[in-house]
Protein: Phosphonoacetate hydrolase
Organism: Sulfitobacter brevis
Amino acid sequence: MTCPLCATDAPLIATPVSGGPADASAPLCVICVTQIASDSPDPAHFRALASTMWSEDPAIQVLAARVLAKLQEPWARDLAEQLYLDDETRVWADNVPQQTNHRDSNGQPLVAGDTVVLIKDLPVKGGGFTAKRGTAVHRISLVADNPAHIEGRVEGQRIVILTEFVKKR
């Protein structure tokens, strides 16, 4: 299939688009997913944005606006100025979660409100139970002063979890 963001023929993965509707996602190639998460995406990969940014899918429009804003290239600034988004989509595009140093076991960035899955059985100190591998922890909170810790509710109890033992869902 063709990636709706970079126009490359590759297998696509449903990728959540943050900051908007809870179920918003876009089918993207693995390279786009990696590049979007990068602090300095490869401008050459996104040259097709000149045509794909006009997609009728709001999630693709939002991703195109965010990528163009990240790229430090004159052509990207020109395209960003040309991109028309309705008011609701513009608010969504500008609602970028704040970057943190919190990362899961695979290096994926974590933001408050994410859902993570435990990758190992974890004994809960003072809780008297073990949080089992595969347990989903919904709506996590980030520990502001320690990027290795997140907080979440497991078996009805709020616990601190090391990020090295979770993967983003």
